[in-house]
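Input record (one chain):
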Amino acid sequence: MTFPPFTEEHTLLRQTVRDFVMKELYPFRKEWDDAGEWPAREVLRRMAALGLLGIRFPEECGGAGMDWWAHTAMVEELAACRNGGVTMSIFVHTDISTPVIAELGTEEQKEEFLRPAFAAEKIGALGITEPGCGSDVASLLTTARSDGGDYVINGAKTFITNGAFADFIILAVRTGGPSHAGISLVIFPTNTPGFSVGKKIDKLGTRSVDSSLLHFDNCRIPKRYLLGEENAGFLYIMRNFQGERLVGALMCTSGMEVQIQDALAYGKTRTAFGRPIANFQVWRHKFAELLTSVKAAKMLTYHAVDKMNRGEEATLEISMAKLFAGDLAQRVAYDCLQFHGGYGFTEEYDIARAYRDVRILPIGGGSSEIMKEIIAKWCGM
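The corresponding structure, as predicted from the sequence alone:
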């Protein structure tokens, strides 16, 4: 069997995505970074018109009814936009906020939130991280007090991508006692009275999309917005992280390929000591090493994609892929910037933005240190 099992259908999908990226995203990569925002609502609507927002979800809830390999093709082609903030914002909508509704949501919840999300009529975000806890999800403090048929929510979330403009947030709240056993997930409409967006966090990278501080002050939502069972949210979060982490690994591998491609193109035109710098052995060997490592990261990630696509347990493989690809992405960006010399330290070339953007990849969705703990546990250590 050919591996990876990409078909002609996937090739056509890639071309659709690449055409869209080069027309709608790539020309604005620096402009949006400089502005600190991008026109998410308008661009996502154009993606929805092409059927790109629900590729791996069933047609009955507004998706395209395709598989993880089709989604992989889309993720890889989006890397050509050369703006990590834009791709992160898109994937928060497609791979972080919507999958949990598809998995746990009632038919009513799917009609109210999921179908509009795939049509870009509503934009989603995920609200877990708080000022006092990130990886330690079990310590979150935002509360959802039961009051008749409602939950009354109080607390704060931070580093919430899409938080400044999302229409709904998949919100982790404490409905029970301490630790992981008292956490639930709810769908939180952002037009709820008492909700407010605080300061926009000034970040090293992914500058074209917000990461915001959110406040919840006696926000009342109906209990029908509970996702799954009450106090089972920690398990749901851990399960939802797998898709997020897998897409994170794919972002790493596809982004590294773009950076190397750009560097080699630069190296053919930039001369030093009378010849193109790409011809120097020190750099030819360096890129041979990088290309080999990226290929290894890609095959490991594809192995995890294959297991996910088959519906098999893939926590170990996904954790390994995110760890390996996320850490490798730092080295590839470093070496590609170094290859550009002084020009790499300027905003004239895309590598400067890539160097900033990749730094979030071993942190977001579970840090490399957390991945190592998961791997050790699954390997019986």
